[in-house]
Structure formats: C-alpha cells, structure tokens
Design a protein that fits this description.
Four copies of one chain form a homotetramer. Chain A has 410 residues and is α+β, with helices and mostly antiparallel strands. The first copy, chain A, folds into three domains: 122 residues, Acyl-CoA dehydrogenase/oxidase, N-terminal domain (Butyryl-Coa Dehydrogenase, subunit A, domain 1), CATH 1.10.540.10; 116 residues, Butyryl-CoA Dehydrogenase, subunit A, domain 2, CATH 2.40.110; 159 residues, Up-down Bundle (Butyryl-CoA Dehydrogenase, subunit A, domain 3), CATH 1.20.140.10. Chain A contains twelve helices and nine strands. The first copy, chain A, has a four-stranded antiparallel β-sheet, with no helix packed on it. In chain A, strand 2 and strand 3 form a beta hairpin. The relative contact order of chain A is 0.10.
C-alpha cells in the first residue's frame, strides 16, 4: 500500500498549479466581482481571453489530461489524473481551459471507445482540439429520468436513416456558440432486451428539427456561457451511420461513459471543498467578532475539523475508486463509483455551506464564489443519477454478498 | 392548555386563503414560468398588477394584519397572526400585497413604538398606506455584523444636526422605486455605556450623500424588484429630530424591532416548509420510476414523515413564542425568539432540500419555486443574526439557571 | 390558543415535585452509587422501602393520576397529566411509586375500557390498588413483530375453553415477584378479517403451562427488579371468559392501548431529556479544562442550545398530541401519536448522548444515571413499534391527503 | 499510489481469519448466549480455554503482530498490521488471544521504546510472552482529564525513591488476576515546563499502598474479566529506577504511546463496523415483515449503502494514517491520528446503531453482540481523548497553515 502519487502526476500538478495561479484565478475573481459594477447581464458569449488561455494551455502540454491514451491524451491513469482534476476543479474556468470539462470529456471518451473512424474524424478530433463543444442529451422533462428505462425519446430506424424525436433537458453546454454536436440517447427497439433497446446518435446541432427551446437555471444560476438547455428533436433525420457503435448499445455506452464522468465530477468537487475550507480558515483567522477571531468562537473550530476529516475521507475514496478503475475496469468499481457519487457531493455541499455560514451575509452574495460552488455541489446530488439511485446500487451490490442477484435487486 | 386558534384568526385565515387562491398564486406561478420564454431580465420595476392587488386587499380589510393595534392594524395578537403569516408566507408576493412584508413591518413597528408624532405622520402613515417602502440599514460589509458593537458607521451630533457616515449592506427593499425612507443605525457616542452608544436615524433616500452603490445577489438571486442594496452614506446631514426616540437608543429599539421581525420571518418560513412538503407529496404520488410512484421508493416515505414531524414541532415552537410575546412581552420570550430563529430556517432548509431532491433536476430549475424557497430559508440562517449568535443567546439563558449572569456570558 | 396549564395540573405538579425531592430522588441516587461498593448483584426483589413509598403516595392522593376517570383515577385529561408524567419520568422509581408505570398503566386502561365486570374485579382493582403487577405479552422472538400480523402464538377456542400456545418476549415487568397477571395476544381465527383474527387473553401467571424461560438484557442492563422476560405458553387452558372483550378484538384493543401507552412513554422521556440537560449544564458550569469551565469550550454551548431547542419542540408536540387525544380521541391523533413516538426517543437519545459526552468517562459509568437513561431512550426507538413503522404511519396519513387510502398505503 | 496490501500482510490475514473461524468465533457466540441460561454472574476469572488458545496462537506465530520489530514482534508496518487488527477486532476475545489487546500493546510499546534494559526484562518480556497483563493509569475522577495538565496525582522524588499518591480510574484490565503491572502517570516537578512536569512510573500492582477501590461499568457493562478499575495509590514508594525514561518525560511518552494506541483502536473498530454491517445485511435478507424481506422496506437499503460508504471512507483514512506513521512517524501524522480518532468511533457507533435498529428488540438484547459492540464504540468517543479534544487538534493544525502557531492555538 502506497499513498504517494507518481512523479509525473506530481510534475503535472505543479505545472497546472502554476498556470492557474498565474493566468486563471485572479482574472476569474475579477470577473465575478464585476457583477457588482454593472447591471447584471448574461454573458452567453465566452470572453475572448478564454480562447487565448486554451491555446496557451495546449502549447504547454496541459491539455486533454483526462484521457488515459498516450497519443490523444496524456496517458495518465485515473489515479494520476485525480490530483490534477482536483486542482482544476477549484476554478470554474480551468477545466475548460485545459480541455478537461464536462460534458466534453465524457463525450470524447464515448467517441474514443465506441466511435467509428469517420465519427472520430468528424467529432472527436475537433473536440480534442478544443475547437468545438458538445452536449449529452439523455434526461427528459416529462419522466423520472433517474430510471433511464422511462425514456420517451425515439430513434427509429427507417431504411438507412434514423429518425429522432423527443425532448431532452439538462443538456449542459448548450449555450456555447460553438456547441456543434449532441449525443442523443433514445429508444430504438422496444422489443429488444431491456438494456438493448436504446441507441446513442451523433446529432449535429444544426440538423433540421433540432431546436433549443430554452435554457434552465440551477438554483437561480444560468451558468452562462455554458448553460443548461432544453432541446427538442422533431423528425430529425440522419444516416444510420450516425449511431454510435450501432443500434441498441446505448446502455452499454452510457455505463462506460458515466463511470469516468462521475469520477471526474467527484475529483473536481474535492477541489471545491478544499477551496471552501481554505476560504473558511482565512475568514476564521482574519475576521473578529466579540473580541476574538471567528476561529475562537463557539463550534467554529469543530466545524473546521469536521470539514478536514470529511474531505480527507472523501478524497481517499475517490482515489481508491480511480485505482480500481485503473486496475479492474469500470465493472470492477461499480459500487465504488456509486459510493463516491453519493459521498462527495454531499460532503462538498456540507463543507461549502459551513464556509458560507462563516462568511456571514457576504458568503451568500456575489462577493464570494461560495454560492456558485454550493450550487454546483447541490446539482451533482442529482446530475448523473440522484443520490437515491446510487445508494440503491451500493446496497444491491452489498446485499448480493448474502443472497442471489435477483433477490438483491429487491 | 388549548391548541385551538381564535375564531377571528380562523376567519381571517379563510379570507386570506381565498384571496391567495383567487388572485395571487396562479399569477405568481405564471410569472416564474415566463422566465423560460424570454431572455432573462431583471425586473426592477414592480408589475402594475401588484398595486391593483394591494388596493384590493386593503379594500377587503386584509391589510396591516401584523400590527397588534386596533386602529392602525387589525388588533390581532401574535398568536392570532401566526397562521395568517404562515399562509401569506407560502407566496413570495402575498406578504407585500397584504402590506405585511419585511422589512416594512419591522420598520413600522419601530415607528409605532418609538416614533415621534411628526415621524409617524411623515413615514408611518405612508408605510401603513402601502404608498412607500423602506429599508433597514444596520449590517456593514467591513466588519462581522453578528457582533453589532463592531459597527463602524457614525451618526455624529453637531449642534442641531446629525451627520451620517458609513457603508451599509443587505438593505433589503432598496430596489423598489418607491423605497423612500431608510432607518440607519450608527455610532453616536463611543463614551456611553456599550449598549447606549448607537442611534437610529430616519434618512430620506433622496437626501444628499445617500447612494446605492450596487445590489447584492443571494445565492445567485437578485430578488428583484425588492433586492438587497449596498448603500453608502457620506456626510448626510439631517436635523436631530430625525433620530428615533433620541440619541443612544438604537440597541433598545433594535431588540424590540427584531423580536417581532424574527417571529414574522419564522411564521412565513413555516408556510414555505409546508408548501415544500405539499409539493414533495404531489410529486411523490404522481411521478413513476422503476415501476412505482416515487413515494414507494427507498426512504422517500421516511423523509416525508420526518418533514411532517419537523414542521409540526417548529410550528408549535413559533406559536408558543408568539404566545409568550403576547403574554410576557419580548423580554419574556428572549430565549424562545432565538430558539425559533435557529430551529425554523434550518428545518425549512432541510424540508425544501428534500423536496428538491424528490423533484429531480426539475427541482433545481426555474420550473419550480423550490430554489427560491431554499435560498430564502438559507438566507434566514444569517439574516437577523446567524444561527451561532442565537444559539449563544439560548445557551446563555439556559446556563444562567445554574450560575450568575456574568458567568453565563462566558 | 393558550399554553398555560390548568390550575389543578399545576397543583398536582407541585405536590409530585415535593414528594420526589423529599422521598425519592436522593435515595435513588444512593442506591445507584452503592453498585460501586459491592460485588454487583441483581436485585430481583424490590426493596421494602418501595412499598412504603407507594402507600405514602397513595395516602397523599398522588395515585393513578394517569387514568382520566374521576372515580378510579384523578380525572385528569392527558394534557393535564403530561407535566406530571414528565416530572415522574425524571426518576426510574417514581412512576411505580405513584402507580403510573408501564406496562401496568396500559394494562389498566385495557381493563378499564374493555374488561368485563368480573375481569375488573379480579385484575383491575388489585392493579389500581398497586397490590399486583402485570405484563403485556405481544412481541415474539421468532418473527418481525413490527408487523403484528406476523404473530405466531395461538389462542384457540375449544368449546368453552381457550387454549394458548406460543413464545413471547420483551414482557417487561416479568421479574416482579407479584407479577400476577399477563395480557396475552394471539391468533384465534385465521379465516377472519386481517384485523379481527386475534384475541387478548388474561392469563394468571401461575397457570399451568406458563413459564418464564429467561430474562433479557437491554444494552447490558437487566432492569431489575422489573426486567424483561421471555415467557412460553404451552397448552395453557383458560375459560373463554378470560378473553378481553371477546374473541377477535385484539387489534382494536391494542390500538386503543398503545395510544396512551406511547404518549405516556414520551411524556416521561421528555423528563429524562430535561434531566440530562440539567446535568449537562451543571457539569458544564462546574468542571474546568484548559483553564475554562467546559461551557466555554468549543461547541459545548451550541450543543446545550440545540438540546434546549429540541426539548422544547418535542414537549410541545407531545402536549399537542395529548390535547388531540383529549378532544378528538385516539383516532383523531393517529399521526401525532406516531410523530411523537419517532421524535421524542430520538431527541432524548441525542440529548442524553450529549450529556454523557460532557461528563467524560464518568458519564459512561454507574457514577451517573446517564447510561441507564440513554438505554431507556434507545429502547423506546424500538418498543411499541420501531421508528420505521411509525414513520410509515405518518407518511401514509400525509400522502392520503393527495391520493386515496389504498394508494397511500403503497 | 497503490491500494493493494502486501503479500505477507495478506498471508497473515488468511491465517488469522482461519484461526478465528476455527477456534474463536463460535465459542464466543456460545459464551454470550449462555447468559440467557443462568442467573447472570460476572466472570472475573478468565476461562481456561483462553490460555490454551493463546498458546495455540503463539505456536502458530500469530502473536505480537502489532509490534513493528522483527525480533520482538512480527516486523509488520502499521499499514500491514491494519487489516489484521481489523479482523481481530471483530471479536472481543481475539485481540487478547493474539496478544494484541489494549492496553497491553500500548504499554509494551512504551517499554519497547523508552524502557531500560531492566524494565524490559522485568515487564516487557512477560507481557510479550502473554504471561501477565498491565494497566495504564492516567485518567483521574476528580478532574477533567481531557486536559492532561489538570492531573492531580503526584510522583514525588525523595532521594532515590519516588513516592506516588493519587486516584486513577478507567484503568482497563485491572480485573485480570494476572494484571501485575501498572504504568502510573503523575506530577513530579510543577516548576518545570508545562510538558516536562510529569513522569511515568512502573508500579507493581502488589506494591504496598496500591488498592483497587472498585470497578466501573461502561453503559451498564462490567467488561469482565478485563474490567475498568478505580485504583488509589497512597504513599507508594518505589526506587527512582521505576520511572520510565527518567523524570519529566511522561507527556513525550504519552504522545508516542497514544499514536499507535489510537490507531489500533480504530483498526479494530473498523472490524466491528464491518461485522455490524454484515449482521445488518444478514438480518435484512432473512427476516420478513409486511410481506417483504426487511431489505426491501423503507429506507433500509439506503442505510445499508450509507454504512458501506462510511466504512470504506473511514478505513481508507486509517490506512492513510498508518502509512503516514510508517513513513513520517507519529509527529508526521498528528492531524490524521486525531482525525481517525474522531471519524472512526462515530462512524462505528452509527453503523452499529443502524444494525441494532434492523434487528428490532433482539438487537438490544444479549442474543446478539450488538449492544456490547455499540458500547465499545461509544466508549472510544471518550477514551484516549474525547472527540472534542481531537477536533481541537485537527483544527489547530489546519489553522496553523494560515496563521502562526500561537494564534492557531486560540
């Protein structure tokens, strides 16, 4: 057993840390504080500096670090990538600047693992280059999407075409002007086995019949310029070759996609929690009330200790999970993936809430990043599967040690 | 002991309930959903319908119900007003329509109890009439305002004038075009007893030297058209007669103001929690996943039960506290006022979070009022004194049963 | 709405308080501390002082206060009895001394409401006189008794006899030498409606075929001299007239019995929590560490405040529930009875655990009553229905506001 | 980073597991269940089988595995020992059988690191051989021992003698007939630096002036045959050579002792939590209520999942802490040692409480080991430093990243 990270991971971490300190964090802080100065407006156009920073990051080799492939990515294992994602996650901009942001990373992994040569050329290459953005269209407004078999959208095969219909929402990234491609998941063959009925289709966003109905807020935030869209697909016709991996493989692909997607979210959230704890400590040691620094009032130290303890535990679980994915694959880490998906967002939500409370009224306002951080953690208790569904997975795998698989399903 | 509410309180409740069903709730729902349709914009101008509804409510005698005075208000006791405030609190608009919204109610009580004849004529009357709005300027950005003695703003007496300087924030209501008057609290005499150094001054918002620096968001919300302002006061000169109750009485007035202010917040929050539970039950019984209504999945029923249990207990504590204020005055209810100020927002935050979770992604979006409701509850864990300060009051009064007062202060 | 207790309840409270201070509490303390001095031994024989105190209490009219009947009891309503039970509950001996202890009170209520003239003469009179003790035999070791329809014991009618077979446990009170009578619940007619299959039978403990197999510990305690027995019934033959209210009425009687039984437990537990908070405050103000009284260290004040807030809320819910039973009957208070059954033991467990922690190692030992108090609270999260079952009842009644009764059952 | 345990650790684990299955667990179960059959009595004499099993374990080389020394122990690192201690910890007898039980392990480490040649010969050797037992006498009844500087016992040097006076309690192991030696900590020189005033003295239990006043219960348990003693030392005279490492080094030694002591406790508690989860799953899948296995009722699956998630996180934190002690020493792991000391007992207490609840009434009784397990976890929230003190250490080390050391102390 060895808790030391690899030399190359440590080297990348240093470089990312330096890049973020030098080029990202101060600017991000300024941008947020500017909201005070102007009439609030939604910036659906990414600032030009973003593209410049992306180029710079790419030039420095801080690019596509998430992909465990030597050629397309940096060839890092998940456990090596974890500290990097954690550091990037402390900023809302950094993941994008390093081309490591959701949902693009997940979509790239889908194309990397399941895409045809043509699909890779058309979409994976420009995504890896950071030239375009993408959305993942799975969740639907009309049904409980925690149960994916509820899905109502259809991808019907008619001859050599596939015809798409349905309404999807929570399509994060739909706000980008260069969001060019969607991965659309829908029902193809209701007569097939429960988990072989659905397909994933690559849909150019400018296809006739594709329309962004409107954007959604999360806890009041539009999350511009990325945003979350509700998108309708009405008789969208595409060649059958637009289906990833062929018809009926959507669940298989989704499971493969969601493993890394979830762990990346969790890695970044650890970073957010760590950032919140730092802010809490800075506030606690610098602000005075009733004649003492806040750190010396009431239960504040206990809360800081509890936050440290919670973060350490959650981080170790994420690392263990990453190591399992590296050594045994996603299927060897099913319980752990669901475990971190429950543990980390709840932990982060709690730590950030504590930091808000220590900041007083200011902690609720746009003076600090804390409200956006909290919202991000809260969203992840639902996104990529609600807590309850993941607890269900963990329990099923636990009970399967004692009864047969069907009984464990309940 | 009798848990039945009075006949006239029940009568008012019926009328308020009918008014809200008929005139308020559907429109409010529509207004929120409209956010989907348009480019988001902040409405700092209250809609004209609001004024019409206020007139209607006033005509029906559903007006100023908060004030336990037969002439100016409805003459209801706090315990009689509680169920009405709870019902109003289920809407974000209703309290204003019935002229029972914060911070105006608190400010009116200050003027009612401590205002001079002239101050009442100038400001209480138009507030009671709903013609103008007001702000309360106490909290400051530069210091920990949980400890009010930290306050840096000054109200210096020079001859027959008082000169105001300082920066205040979290001045809720500053966004209203007809927000005409501020109550400004500041240091007058640093040589006086700790709790006799400060004054409250009535400051017309159009006084030279008064400037709204900017508005603040709470968890991403601008809470327009009311909003929360940061306001600077620079050499604002007013006659000494603008001081409420005379110099040095600010702490005395603040304590008197905050008692009813806090309990009214709590009453309304009970309403929000009740509304969230209703939404949770409706969702749980109407939405299906994994072949069952959500109500029959995992721990959902337990969470619904826990919410019911938590709401009932918190409501009873608020009622008990109201009864104590009615029968023994604010000073006879100090512990209970702090108790509800801790218990109710935390309870409401938890219940609303549960309801969000049951709604899935939709619960985070502007499709439902839940995010705004959550934010409101979260804010109240800091506004009017953070949880920690109120826990401190409760503990001090508890320990004073065992040791003398100074030792109980710690 | 009125939170003042009645004059006669206040009068009784004063007298009970004086009696407990004068005659009970010091002795109880001494008895516990004596455990240090001797080789531990289990006192299955009640001390003679107990009978003397019972006589004294009876002579002073502090007797059978639980029974809302003017002749047999004191004619107090539940809401009037609540503060008395709370005060008695602060001692482990007092309820018995005032003839108000479980399970006798519940059994007396069964006989009072459902017993025949003969049954009352034979068993209710001696119980009201405090001459004998009783047990209630419902729970069984072999099945999940949270679902009472699981019950395996039988009460088969053969001619004019009823024949009893089965094993019951958690029969509290079985350790008393004068435990003369059991109420035994068992299956009589499996063909009847689900809730009309069972009967309750009065079984003299000296009937042939009745045997106490062994006693049970709760968290290590034997709870002597009362104790919890496992009792087997083997071909016990009794006349049919031993059945209370006639065959098939056991569920009806049980529901009626458990309402008051549960609320009495909760009232007493409020007393235990209040006692634990008092102990915590006394320790916090008298014990010094790191140069300060414990009260001024870390989060201790916050915990004391939280305990106060939790107790107040729970007490009010119990009082409201008592008032509902008084004014609308047990059936009008079903949700509230289950609500307090969840809320109060959990609250008490938490408050007592906090008090233990404040007492350090001593708090775990027989130097203080805290471990026994904690155990008592913990037991009540299972006795008379586990938390989970009561949460189910609360949820069902909540959801029934939105869907029909069958759907609410889930 | 590598989460795989070493080959030799895995080999030891297999052998310990086999030994426990074959020789310990069934017998232990039987012994507990025997309590049903007899009048309860306290077995202060260890059963003869215990000594036989110790011999057997020693013969198989499963002996002193805790000591990272090739000669005296097995030469295992802490991280290699962790899984073994976890497995042993699932039984109350196993640690003793493998000569790895508290407080002997801690006392042996003290002697190993700080003992003179003579002290080692006299006391370390027989302890390593399992021939005698020992107690650690630090905590005192009269003062808050969470602050060790409160200590009132004295070890006064008079010429070449040291004279001991004081009363100690919570001396675990004092009940063993072969408990021959005590390590006694007391004040030697009040004029020295705060952390150099105290000494640790080796006191043969048969020294004149040593008396076991009485034993203490924990939550009602006597924990026989080990037990927890209150021991008085009255003018006990010993040669100065009885002081370990010389006068004034007690705090230094204590810190060194408590590091491994605490982590061993935590390792074993992970085992207890794992055992409780197993019991919960077995019960949940085998017991039926309301027509379903308990696993499929209400929130039971969520609780099982939460337990799994909590255990995994706590175990990883313990392993990380062990690895830090191995690679950086106790001083390099101060925060982590306090972190696990908070995290693990609280986690275990929660998991075991959940398991109790799933077992219904049986879970509270001596039919299952759960009450003893719960008590053990609860005790460890106070033993070796209460949660609050350890949270204080974690917070201090956290805040020291932002302010200087003195400010971080608060």
């Amino acid at each position: 057993m060895d808790f030391e990270n690899s030399a190359r991971s440590k080297d990348y971490l240093e470089r990312i840390d330096a890049f973020m300190r030098e080029h990202i964090e101060e600017q991000e802080e300024k941008a947020r504080l500017m909201m005070f100065e102007r009439d609030p407006l939604y910036q659906w156009t990414p600032p030009p500096e973003l593209e410049q920073l992306k180029e710079k990051a790419r030039a420095e080799g801080l690019w596509n670090l998430f992909l465990p492939d030597d050629e397309y990515g940096a060839g890092l294992s998940n456990v090596e990538y974890a500290p990097l994602a954690e550091r990037m996650g402390q900023s809302f901009l950094a993941p994008e600047i390093f081309n490591c942001s959701a949902p693009d990373t997940g979509n790239m992994e889908v194309l990397y693992h399941f895409g045809s040569k043509q699909q890779k050329d058309d979409w994976l290459m420009p995504l890896l280059a950071g030239d375009i953005r993408s959305v993942f269209c799975m969740t639907e407004p009309a049904v409980a999407s925690s149960d994916a078999t509820n899905m109502e959208a259809t991808a019907t095969i008619e001859g050599d075409e596939v015809v798409l219909n349905g309404v999807k929402w929570w399509s994060t990234g739909a706000g980008y002007p260069n969001c060019d491609i969607a991965i659309f998941m829908a029902l193809t063959d209701p007569t097939a086995h429960k988990y072989a009925q659905h397909s994933m289709v690559l849909v150019p966003m400018d296809s006739p019949g594709v329309r962004i109905d409107h954007m959604l807020t999360t806890m009041g935030y539009w999350d511009e310029p990325s945003g979350h869209g509700q998108i309708s697909f009405e008789n969208v016709r595409l060649p059958v070759s637009a289906i990833i991996g062929g018809p009926g493989r959507a669940f298989e692909i989704a499971q493969s996609r969601l493993g890394p997607g979830r762990i990346h979210h969790c890695m970044r959230l650890i970073g957010q929690a760590e950032r919140a704890l730092r802010m809490a400590c800075e506030r606690a040691t610098s602000r005075v009330a009733f004649g003492k620094p806040l750190a010396n009032l009431g239960g504040n130290r206990e809360r800081i200790a509890d936050a440290r303890i919670a973060i350490e535990q959650a981080r170790l679980l994420v690392l263990k999970c990453a190591w399992l994915i590296d050594t045994k694959g996603v299927l060897g880490a099913l319980s752990e993936i669901s475990q971190i998906k429950v543990a980390v967002p709840n932990m982060a939500q709690g730590v950030i809430d504590m930091a808000i409370q220590l900041h007083g009224g200011a902690g609720l306002s746009n003076q600090f990043a804390l409200p956006a951080m909290w919202t991000h953690a809260r969203v992840l208790r639902l996104a990529d599967g609600p807590d309850e569904v993941h607890r269900g997975v963990v329990a099923r795998l636990e009970l399967a040690k004692y009864v047969d698989r069907d009984a464990a399903r309940g």
